[in-house]
Amino acid sequence: MYEGLDAVTFNNMFIERLDTTDGLQKTAAAGAAFVRAKIREIGFARRVLPPESVTRADTTRSTEHDTLIKIVDIEHDSKAKAVNFAATADERYISGKRYALAFFKIEAEKFVKSEGELLAYDYPITKVIEENSVKDIQKVEDVKFIEYAESAVTITGKRLVSTATAVDRKELTSLFKMIDFDQLVVGTVLMSTVDFDDWMVQPATEVGSPLASEITVGGYKYPTILKRKLVVTNKHDVVLPGEIWAFTDPAYLGNFFILNDVKFWIKKEADLVIWKTWEYVAEGFGNIKAIAKLELDVPNPIPVGGTL
Predict the structure, then answer these.
(1) Residue 56 in contact with residue 68, Cβ under 8 Å?
(2) Is the model's pLDDT at 30 over the cut of 80?
């Protein structure tokens, strides 16, 4: 939308466009595209378990509630055995294994702003939408993701409580082993920026002199940690300091579905511009053994005089 224009001109044309039915529809469509792109960039849940768009045809009605569900098949276990030339392997009748994910709605607040106030902004209106709507929606996605992960480790017992006060290679290796022992491989490590700060001050005896020097000067710049994808979040109220998560690759983990993509609605009443954003999503883990959690000994993660 209006690429190359300064913010004031952009905002003026954006508002003028809302005065016609055709312009209103085009603005809503452009806003939806903006929201989709930004949400995919920000939320950490989407970086661990990339979302997949589905339509009504891909879903079915639930017998338990008045919403839609998506049924996902789970891969069957199989085995082989050594036999002599006259023998055959065991025979087993295969029964289907699957799980159902229920869709739920995530909706940002309905925002109202006067035309005059929007014209006073010195950055594009889409920035306002991002700050008010996108971040709220993606945070709810992340909250539900961690809630489900907590339920998984509660069931499996893959919760490692450590006396260490900071993350290091030894602690991460112990975390990975909880997944490795189930013949799975850790694909992603999730931690807060607070724990990532601790990771960056490891001594040269732990990471080697060249890397220690590099981190001291330019910080830890790599997208991986011990060969695993690294995801760092500043949502300290969702991923608490001292909590390190390990997940397998998405194919062995679970599913994240978006029904008919993110919706963006906008209208203008007199001099007021009103908009809201919502989506229907389903998140879940088909393999709860694919998640493990490390809990460090961080009794007071909030610094004195500060807040998280």
Answers:
(1) yes
(2) no
pLDDT given at position 76: 54
DSSP label at residue 289: G
Element spanning 263, H or E: strand 263-269
Q: Tell me the three state secondary structure of residue 186.
A: strand
* pLDDT tens, residue by residue, 88-97: 555 554 444 7
* Beta pairing partners, 42: none
Q: Give the pairing of strands 243-248 and 224-225.
A: unpaired
- Asked if 59 and 103 count as a contact pair (C-beta separation under 8 A), the reply is yes
Residue 13's alpha-carbon distances to 79, 245, 258, in angstroms, are 65, 45, 31
- CA distances to 104, 210, 227 from 272, in Å: 30, 58, 51
> For residue 148, with 0-12 CB atoms within 10 Å meaning exposed, 13-18 middle and 19 or more buried, which class applies?
middle
> Which residue is it, tokens 């839609």?
68
Report pLDDT digits (tens) over 159-179: 999 999 888 889 999 999 999
Helix (H, G, I), strand (E, B) or coil at 297: coil
Contact (Cβ atoms closer than 8 angstroms) between residue 34 and residue 3: no
Q: Is the dihedral angle over the CA atoms 174, 179, 182, 183 positive or is it negative?
A: negative
Q: How far apart are CA 166 and CA 164, in angstroms?
A: 6
